């Protein structure tokens, strides 16, 4: 007889953003197995903590205040997003608990650039910027480097244009704990088939999917995988680093326009860009200009066409582009 399995994921997450203030998510999601690989899903409020672990809300506030004070000269009017979370997973098989785990994490993000995403509650020791920079500080000859989020945005757009986007289960796994529900050990502990458990894990790992009809659960995708390029080239001595790319329409010749968050990298120092740059280019054409990875892969934010946040690993990549070729001049 197929063993009955119940998997419960509890999320206690506090997010502090200068633009929207504090939001708190306490949610428990349970998947109970049925016959023929079916699962019965339910959601409740997560139980309160035991008091032994740090409260995510207070921890997020403390980290946000400390980082804001440290980064104020570079941040200007913009702010950081700080998220502290605790994810608990409880698995029973035929009424007997077979696995339980708890995971805390801390996320620090500037716009779409992930500055810190690690297990535990320790904040980053430092932030990358030494100062702020404006569009006038960018030189036309500065080589362009695609940051992880920008590379993911171009890859997703290219896949969408050539019709390869949207394949269920395609893409890469998420490094973000609420979206990362590994199957390691569950097959052995429960005796259920890998494919059966994979479906339950996929649903429980993405609470956003509970907002759409049940029949669409199977169509969810991960961000498209980026070509595996191990670091093989040094970061340019000076470069315009595009932290993110957001589509914002098309010009008269049909080429897409993008709004780019950016940094200027000069040796060991980074200057955070004030505002956004407007750049132009078809995603496949821009990707053809990409060269080698110049930094190890790291967590990055990726957005799908309807704006849902996902996370993936991607490197910084050099290009044959220069700032003067890519940036659309400001209108007088």
Summarize the structure in words:
Residues 33-47 have a biased composition (Polar residues). Residues 30-55 are annotated as: Disordered. With 332 residues, the chain is of the alpha+beta class. Helix content is 18%, strand content 40%. It has helices at residues 56-75, 148-161, 186-190, 194-205, 283-288, 323-326; strands spanning 5-17, 21-33, 39-44, 80-93, 96-110, 113-119, 129-133, 143-146, 238-250, 256-266, 269-273, 277-280, 290-293, 298-303, 309-314, 317-322. The strands form three sheets. Strands 7, 8, 9, 10, 11, 12, 13 and 16 form an eight-stranded mixed beta sheet that branches. Strands 3-2-1-4-5-6 form a six-stranded antiparallel beta sheet. It has a two-stranded antiparallel sheet with strand order 14-15. Strand 10 and strand 11 (269-273) form a beta hairpin. The chain is globular and about 70 Å long. The N and C termini lie far apart (74 Å). The model is unreliable at 211-220 (pLDDT under 50).
Give the SSE string: EEEHEEEEEHHHEEEEHEEEEH
Helix content: 10-25%
* Anisotropy-based shape: globular
Task: Please tell me how large the radius of gyration is.
Answer: 22 Å
Structural class: alpha+beta
- Give the DSSP E fraction (strand runs of 2 or more residues): 35-45%
Q: What does the main sheet amount to? A: 8 strands, mixed
């Amino acid at each position: 007889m197929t063993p009955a399995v119940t998997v419960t994921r509890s999320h206690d997450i506090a997010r502090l953003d200068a633009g929207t203030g504090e939001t708190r998510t306490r949610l428990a999601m349970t998947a109970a197995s049925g016959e023929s690989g079916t699962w019965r899903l339910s959601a409740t409020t997560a139980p309160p903590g035991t008091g032994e672990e740090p409260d995510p809300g207070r921890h997020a506030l403390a980290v946000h205040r400390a980082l804001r004070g440290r980064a104020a000269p570079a941040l200007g009017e913009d702010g950081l997003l700080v998220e502290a979370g605790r994810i608990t997973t409880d698995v029973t098989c035929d009424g007997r608990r077979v696995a339980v785990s708890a995971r805390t994490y801390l996320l620090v993000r500037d716009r779409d650039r992930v500055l810190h995403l690690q297990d535990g509650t320790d904040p980053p020791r430092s932030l990358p910027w030494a100062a702020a920079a404006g569009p006038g500080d960018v030189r036309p000859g500065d080589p362009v480097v695609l940051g992880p989020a920008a590379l993911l945005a171009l890859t997703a757009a290219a896949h969408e244009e050539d019709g390869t986007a949207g394949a269920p289960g395609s893409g890469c796994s998420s490094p973000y704990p609420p979206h990362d529900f590994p199957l390691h050990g569950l097959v052995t502990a429960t005796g259920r088939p890998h494919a059966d458990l994979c479906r339950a894990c996929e649903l429980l790992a993405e609470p956003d999917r509970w907002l759409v009809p049940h029949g669409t659960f199977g169509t969810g995708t991960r961000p498209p995988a980026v070509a595996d390029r191990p670091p093989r080239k040094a970061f340019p001595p000076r470069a315009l680093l595009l932290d993110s790319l957001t589509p914002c329409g098309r010009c008269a010749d049909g080429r897409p326009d993008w709004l780019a968050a950016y940094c200027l990298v000069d040796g060991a120092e980074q200057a955070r860009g004030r505002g956004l740059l407007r750049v132009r280019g078809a995603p496949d054409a821009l990707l053809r200009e990409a060269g080698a990875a110049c930094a190890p892969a790291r967590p990055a934010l990726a957005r799908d066409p309807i704006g849902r946040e996902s996370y993936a690993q991607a490197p910084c990549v050099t290009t044959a582009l220069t700032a003067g070729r890519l940036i659309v001049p400001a209108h007088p």
